[in-house]
């Protein structure tokens, strides 16, 4: 069974943060570190995630599907 290893958390104050599956922040990378981390890897796919925020709603487009939540 697959397990969550990273999640996008939308907070009720309108902020968005990235969390590991254990709810802790993953390591942040600079652009140079990110570039180095890709070396030697075979990419499976790439996709963009778009986050739109208003008060009190947030919309997220992930892999071509829109999701929203209002509070």
Query: What summary fits the major beta sheet?
Result: 3 strands, antiparallel
Mean pLDDT: 90
Number of strands: 5
Instruction: Report the structural category.
Output: mainly beta
N/C terminus separation: 32 Å
- Count helical runs: 1
Strand order of the largest sheet: 3-4-5
Helical coverage, percent range:
10-25%
Global morphology = globular
Query: Spans of 5+ residues with little confidence (pLDDT < 50)?
Result: none
Beta content: 35-45%
| SSE succession | EEHEEE
- Which value, in Å, is the CA radius of gyration? 15 Å
What does it look like?
This protein is mainly beta. Helices cover 11% and strands 38% of the residues. It is built from one helix and five strands, in the order E-E-H-E-E-E. It has one helix at 31-38; strands at 6-10, 16-20, 49-53, 57-62, 65-70. A three-stranded antiparallel beta sheet has the order 3-4-5, with no helix packed on it. Strands 1-2 form a two-stranded antiparallel ribbon. A hairpin with a 5-residue loop joins strand 1 and strand 2 (16-20). The longest helix is centred in the middle third of the chain and has 8 residues, at 31-38. The radius of gyration is 15 Å and the shape is globular. The model has no long low-confidence stretch (mean pLDDT 90).
């Amino acid at each position: 069974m697959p397990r969550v290893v990273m999640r996008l958390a939308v907070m009720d104050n309108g902020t968005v943060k990235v969390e590991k599956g254990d709810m802790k922040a993953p390591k942040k990378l600079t652009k140079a570190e990110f570039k180095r981390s890709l070396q030697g890897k075979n990419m499976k796919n790439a996709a963009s995630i778009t986050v739109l925020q208003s008060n009190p709603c947030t919309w997220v487009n992930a892999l071509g599907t829109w999701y929203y939540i209002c509070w």
